[in-house]
Amino acid sequence: MGHAIGSSIISFVEKEARENNIPLVRLDCVKNNETQNKL
User: Fold this and answer.
1) I want to staple 17 with a disulfide (CB 3.0 to 4.6 A). Which of 4, 22, 31, 34 is the partner?
2) CB 27 within 8 A of CB 14
3) What is the 3-class SS of 1-39, one letter each residue?
4) Measured between alpha carbons, how far is 29 from 10 in angstroms, rounded to an integer?
5) Is the Cβ–Cβ distance between 2 and 23 less than 8 Å?
């Protein structure tokens, strides 16, 4: 359940970033860290 919430937050942030032309490099780093922590 926590993973679904995290995914929706990430997709929301990505949508906001696209609308505001904010680069997503930092967000990609966060996603990679979360993936590594789950392993």
Assistant:
1) 22
2) yes
3) CHHHHHHHHHHHHHHHHHHHCCCCHHHHHHHHHHHHHHC
4) 12
5) no
Q: Tell me the pLDDT of the chain (39 aa) as tens digits.
A: 566 777 888 888 888 888 887 666 666 666 666 666 765
Q: Nearest CA to 27 among 12, 19, 37, 38?
A: 12
Check: CB of residue 31 under 8 Å from CB of residue 10.
yes
Dig out the tokens for 25 from the structure.
């490099």
